User: What shape does this take?
Amino acid sequence: MNTSTELNVEMAGLSVSLDRSLSVASLRHFAAGAGFAGDIIGAPLPERLQAVAVASGILAWRSPTETLVVSQDAGRFAALEAGLVGRTDVSFVDQTGGIWIWRITGERASEVLARLGATSAIPAVGHALTSRLAELTVMALCMRAGEILLLVDRVYSAHLMGWVRETVADF
Assistant: This one.
């Protein structure tokens, strides 16, 4: 199997690379309002299709009862998990080993995503969209202009990057 660095794409106007410095977890909450958010996270959960920056990292809306946490700070990630232990209104599921995060940057990033899926798969700043890219379910989230994070199941990462490579071969 290819290593993650062999899957990276670097060319003029485009960079796609695996970011293993980020941890990801699913917060599965069972009641509307998610009262734990203010107590533990210190901020409300994101609205539908939104992504917001918080002290522990990024919160990204995934569904009405699920929010993803993406964090580069292992200490804050662990503290968030510890703070949710024993709660009955939310569960914290560490998915770092199962979801890989690809960072895509450059002026051709939107063009690649449009070719892999559709223009509706390209998030604006502060948005998190789940759609089909390369025939896979992928969450794309954007926290700053010029950079999109693609969250995909680890077992499908090579498939996604194969499609990216074939797509950019046409450039």
Q: What stands out?
A: The chain has five helices and eleven strands. The chain has a mean pLDDT of 91.
